[in-house]
Each structure stands twice: as structure tokens, then as C-alpha cells.
Amino acid sequence: MQLPRSTLLDAYLRMQRIRNFEERIVIEFSSGEIPGFIHSYLGQEASAVGTCIHLDDDDYIGSTHRGHGHCIAKGADLKAMMAELYGKRDGLCRGKGGSMHIADLSKGMLGANAIVGGSPPLVLGAALTAKTRGNGKVAVAFTGDGGSNQGTVFEAMNMAVVLQLPAIFVIENNGFGEGTAASYACGTPDLAARAAAFGMPAVAVDGTDFFAVHDAVGEAVERARGGGGPSTVETRCPRFTGHFVGDPQHYRARGEVEALRRDGDPLALIRRRLIEAGLFDVEQFDALDRDVAAEIDDAVAFARAAPIPDEADLMADVYIAYR
Amino acid sequence: MPRKTIREAINEALAQEMERDPNVIIIGEDVAGGEGGSSGVEDAFGGVMGVTKGLLPRFGRTRVIDTPISESAIMGMAAGAAVTGLRPVAELMFADFFGVCFDQIYNQAAKFRYMFGGRARTPLVIRSMIGAGYSAAAQHSQSPHSIFTHVPGLKVVMPSSAYDAKGLLIQAIRDDDPVVFFEHKLLYDLADEVPSEPYAIPFGEANFVREGDDVTIVAFARMVHIAAEAADLLEKEGISVDLIDPRTTSPLDEDSILESVRRTGRLVVVDEGNPRCGLAADIAALAAEHAFHSLKAPIRTVTAPHTPVPFAPNLEAAYIPSAARVAAVVREIMR
């Protein structure tokens, strides 16, 4: 295990923040405090963190409708995130984006995206900016098994290869596009192979294993920073929850989710690996977990207390200048 | 003052803005052309209408970027580049092709600023051709500007002269919001006086093409010239036309239109778009709502019919609003 302890601690904390954040908003949503609807990232934490741990604030990511995990992994402020989900004025998007459009441009997070397959073309543009400026920055397009069937993703992959852009496509294969299984909806189970056919290096990894994601994305990021063009990493990370919070998941066999939580939990895996390596012990993890839980409590308290938008905000920020 | 065609005016605006600001780049299909071909000839196209010719040798492949035929990727890439600091001018060759990439314009670029709480800036220009008249049929001849005008977050520009084309394009490139710049494909060779130095024409300010007292005609792009022809015919009959070219449909210079309608008491709107939920209906409604008591006659519109654009030259000619049709409508409301 060649990673410094500080990086591993950082990775664990980001994963635990995602876990806590997502578990908490299920509760807050179900009690009616959060409007709209919510897509949970539970079970996929290692994919976002194994990717974003390689990125700085001025590298870019484009996300999906299941975007909270990416946002947290990229370093967005938890209080401002929570306030956004609550539709409050102090939210990251001043309460005008919500869960499906949560963005933090100051952190290079170009937005969750409510259009499946919407982000990859945009991420090309961020990669083009980096390439034009020659600054060694990279851009990561997260999409899912569902998004991988969209033409926009095919176009983006081909364009990235043609223009040799510093772009990385992370296909999070969580097993379902809404309520339809990837095994039905994707013509091949090997989504990385599709990307490879566009002419770029592509691998599939266990997306519940932080280290597997870390190594594969690390290689891709290094290649992109060095001018070696785009890559794809398919991270296989079954989601713990339904498509949206409240989805009864009639399409899943009884016991499937329980088995995933028992045997395929990315948090349990990284914890076990770090304990086995002798880098942390159970007490240390428990203390870290308490700290993270307190952060999430603070975020919820902040969101609850934050003011709602002014009615005048309805008309604000359609344009920078109009007439 | 030198006379230049609309094609030359647009080319000059692009070159001058690229010279002024290294963040301005051009992206599109065959904007240079020749990449990878067997002749080794570069800048083989310079755009299918030759509008971007000569920019590649001047600014190089990093700023004049030929792409695969992938409109979603082009529009998305341009939007993503804009929101991260460049000022891309992306070409959507024929406006008809919005059908394969509208999401990136409509759901993405247009909404960034609002849905991210005012924290995004998307200085994107989309140049695209509109208009019938080449027998290019149903998928290369449409004027879908009303659809873009409907979208909050987009600005929509429709120049009718070379002078306006240059000044409005420079404004579009310097503008911090997404702008869709529609070029009418039958107007590229139209020439008028264009200053050599760069200048910007503000959006939302109409051009008063000619002044008259009897009837207000509002028209855009090529229809400005059709309306002017009609005004010539009517002048011989003693009817004077106040012809207004708003130049941008979003923002729209409502004040100038209403002021004119209040003075003349009559309004005809001429538009090459289709009639349902179109620009002509929109402007007619504006006048009905705000200038009703000044009206001496019903508001009339002259538009394309509610059909796709036909191929056969005689049918296409019947599709496009003509000076004769405009003049006939004016005569009706002058009775």
C-alpha cells in the first residue's frame, strides 16, 4: 500500500461524508423537509472518491442526477450542499438548482445533471479549455450504465479521442437505469469495451474497492495530464437504494440489497483494508465517524436555519445582462 | 466607407475578436476543412459557405477546430468550454440540425446561470444558418428562430445587413450570456457599408429601416428586404411604411415596436418562420396587449404556412413570404 496515510485518511473521510450525508437526507426527505426528489449515491462511494482524490479544485468534473457523492468527493461545502437540497438561499445554487443541479464551479464541479448522458459533452469543453491553456488540468465525465447508452456519450467519447482531450470517462455501472437492469438495457455487459472501440484505453474495475478505482483512474489522469488523451474507467458499483428515495424496488429480488450491504459495502472494505494494513484501528475509525456525523448534523442545522429565497430571486440571474 | 458582403463582415468580426482575445475559438464541422484529406490542402472549406475561410492559416488548429459530425458533442463542448473560461464560437451549420443537439443548448447552456444560482458565466456564441430559397428542402431550409427565442437564458440575433452582422456578432462574442446568431443563407452576398474598425451593436435596439406614417411593418433577417420591396410598391400607391428591424428577437425592442404602432395605428409582422406559436404571433400579441386602443385596423401577420419547407422551386417560392403578399395585406388593412 503505497499511498500516504494522510491521503488514505482523506479518502476515508470523503467516503464516510458521502455515506452519512446520503443516509441523513433519506431521513430528512422522508420526513418532508427536503422538496423534490432525491437520487441516492449509497454503495458507490468508492467510485467518486477513488476518482476525485486525484483531482485539484481547478480540475473539472461533470456529474449525473445521482450527483451528491461526486460533489462531496470534489470538496464542496457540506452546509451549502445541504442548504441547496433544502431549497434555501444559502445553498450552493441559492436554492435554484436543488439535488439534480447541485454545482460548485469554484471547486471545478460543473453540476449534477438531470439529463442522462447530459454531462459528457460539457466535460469535453472543460477538457478543451485545459488543453487550449496547456495547463495540465483534466476533466472527468461521470456517467452511468444508463447514460452509457446515450448517443451523447458516444459522441463525446469519439470527439475526445479525435481532439486528444484530457478527459476521463468514468462509467459508474450500478446495475440499473431507473428500474431496468443494465443486463437488459446494455447490448454488452462490457461497457469499457465499448469505450475502447472508440480508440482509447479503457478498463473495468470493482467500483466498490477504493484502491481499484484509485489505481485505474490514477493511470488515466496521469495520461491525460501528460497529453496522452482520454481514457475510460468503468466502475462496477451496485447501488444500495432504488432509483429515487422512496422507490419500492419491485424489480429487485428479495434480499439482494441486504446482501450487497453485507458483502459489498465500500466503506466496510476500505476500513477492513486499512485496519489489516495496521494504519488505523477500530477506535480511530469510530472517532472519525463521530466527527463526520457531527459535520452532517451541523449541515442539517445550517440548512434548516437558512432563509428561503426572496421572491425577487425568481427573476434574477436568467442573464448576466439583458437589454 | 468600404462595402463588404455579410460573409465578409462576419469573417472580419471573427478575425478581429480572435485577434483581440485569445479566449475566442471557433469550433465546428469543416470550419476549416481538409483535416486528414489526401491532398494535404488545409482550409479546404472555411465553412460550407466560406464564412470562416482564412481563419485557420491566421490562428492555427488550436483556435479553429474542425470536429467530427457530432452536433451534440460540438454544442456541449462549446458550452463546457464557455463555462470554464473560453469564448467559443460554435457553428451549428444548418439551424435545422438543432434537432440532434438541442439538449446541450436548451437544457444545459441556457440554464447554467439560473440553475447554478447566478454563479456561472457562459459566453457562448452559436452561429447557424436559416432560411429557404435554395431548394434545400425540409431539413436544410427552416427558420426555427422562434423556438430558440422561447428559451429563457438564450439571446437570439438575426442580422439583415452586413453592417449589423459585424456589429452584432462582435457584441455576441463579447456578451457574457449564450447567444444564438442566425445567418440567412440567401443574404451572404448582400453588401453594404461596413467600417473596418471593430464596433459592437447593443442587443435589443431596433434598426429603423425606413420611416413612414401609415403602417408599421416589423420584419427580421431576409424578410426585412422583402418588406422593403413591399414598401417600395406601396409608396407608389401613396402608402408610407414604417419598417422596423428589431435585429434581435431576444431581447426584443418592444418599446420601438409599440411606439411605432401607436403612431401609425396599423401593424403587419413578416416572418419566415411557421405561424403557430411563432415570432409574428408573439409580436402581434404584444401590440394587441399594449397598443390596442391605438389600432385602426386588425393586426396582420405574413409568415410561412404551417408546412415543412418543400423542395420544388415553385412550391418553395409559394412557401416564402413575398413582397406581393406583404403589399396585399397592407392594402387590405388600409381600406
From TrEMBL, chain A:
Which cofactors are named for this entry? thiamine diphosphate
**Start and end of every Dehydrogenase E1 component domain?**
14-310
Q: Which biological process terms from the Gene Ontology are attached to this UniProt entry? A: pyruvate decarboxylation to acetyl-CoA
> Which superkingdom?
Bacteria
Q: Which GO terms describe its molecular function?
A: pyruvate dehydrogenase (acetyl-transferring) activity
Q: Which InterPro entries match?
A: DH_E1, PDH_E1_Alpha_Subunit, THDP-binding
Kindly give the Gene3D superfamilies that the UniProt entry links to this protein: 3.40.50.970
What Pfam families does the database record attribute to this sequence? E1_dh
* SUPFAM superfamilies found in the cross-reference section: Thiamin diphosphate-binding fold (THDP-binding)
Task: List UniProt keywords, sorted A-Z.
Answer: Oxidoreductase, Thiamine pyrophosphate
Enumerate the catalysed reactions: N(6)-[(R)-lipoyl]-L-lysyl-[protein] + pyruvate + H(+) = N(6)-[(R)-S(8)-acetyldihydrolipoyl]-L-lysyl-[protein] + CO2
Q: Where is the signal peptide?
A: none
Tell whether Oxidoreductase is among the UniProt keywords.
yes
Q: Which PANTHER family match?
A: PYRUVATE DEHYDROGENASE E1 COMPONENT SUBUNIT ALPHA, PYRUVATE DEHYDROGENASE E1 COMPONENT, ALPHA SUBUNIT BACTERIAL AND ORGANELLAR
What is the role of this chain? Answer: The pyruvate dehydrogenase complex catalyzes the overall conversion of pyruvate to acetyl-CoA and CO(2). It contains multiple copies of three enzymatic components: pyruvate dehydrogenase (E1), dihydrolipoamide acetyltransferase (E2) and lipoamide dehydrogenase (E3).
Q: What is this protein called?
A: Thiamine pyrophosphate-dependent dehydrogenase E1 component subunit alpha
Q: Which organism is it from?
A: Alterirhizorhabdus solaris
UniProtKB/TrEMBL annotation, chain B:
Q: Which domain of life is it from?
A: Bacteria
The keyword Oxidoreductase belongs to this UniProt entry's keyword annotation:
yes
InterPro entries (alphabetical): THDP-binding, Transketo_C/PFOR_II, Transketolase-like_Pyr-bd, Transketolase_C
Question: Which terms are listed as keywords in the entry?
Answer: Oxidoreductase
Entry keyword Calcium: no
SMART domains per record: Transket_pyr
Name one matching Pfam family: Transket_pyr
Q: Name one GO molecular function term.
A: oxidoreductase activity
The Transketolase-like pyrimidine-binding domain extends over 4-190
Can you name this protein?
Answer: Alpha-ketoacid dehydrogenase subunit beta
- Which species does the entry assign this protein to? Alterirhizorhabdus solaris
Q: What is the lineage of its organism?
A: Bacteria, Pseudomonadati, Pseudomonadota, Alphaproteobacteria, Sphingomonadales
